[in-house]
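Why does residue order matter? Because the sequence determines the fold. Keep that principle in mind as you read this record.
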Amino acid sequence: MSKHDDEVSLRHMLEHAREAVTFVAGKDHSDLEASRILSLALVRLIEIVGEAANRVSKTRQKQLSQISWLLVIGIRNRLIHGYDAVDLDIVWQTVTEELPSLITILEAIVPQRDS
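Structure:
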């Protein structure tokens, strides 16, 4: 048995991906380069998405083959281990191109919570 709950990890992926996408709404790449706070926030949110993905059991990952697990976890690893050489172009691409697709997939998987 996994020490992490797959459904909780999937929810964390969804929530943090949504938050990252919300942070860039109405912004462009130059805003990312101009704001250290924004860049640090996005890097951290991407790291959390990747860490949560890594906590999803291999069995559940196989069931959810529409998610690019290696990509999601890999970007987290690049950011964590390459903290001194973060490429903001990759951060921007991840948040504006990759995370919206991931959100769509996760919204179909993760049950809606009542407010």
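Residues 23 and 38 are 8 Å apart (CA to CA).
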